[in-house]
Amino acid sequence: MAYATYEFYCGGYGGDAILQAEFDSYAKRASDYIDLVTLTRAKSYADGEDALKKACCAVAEAIKVNEEGGGIVAESVGKITRNYAAGVTNTPNEEERLAIAACRYLIHTGLLYLGV
What we know:
By secondary structure, the chain is mostly helical.
């Protein structure tokens, strides 16, 4: 079960980086990642503030960026040129990108293990 729908992704989250045909796959993988980092506590969390839905959307976008080879560091419009951040040391690696996306919305929920 994915924590977010495409309708929420576009409306509530304001996302536009993932196409509707791709969203379910990314959202399911993002939800699996959230279950991993929350030790499955997210499954029983009452999401009144949409934190899980937002985290799912953010992690889904991070997964997509990871699959594309990293974040875009330069882009040209004429003759279409893109440069990705793979190998650049000041950008987050794949795991850091996922963790940052999840933490942005879940840090205040009590779902994340903080080493205490």
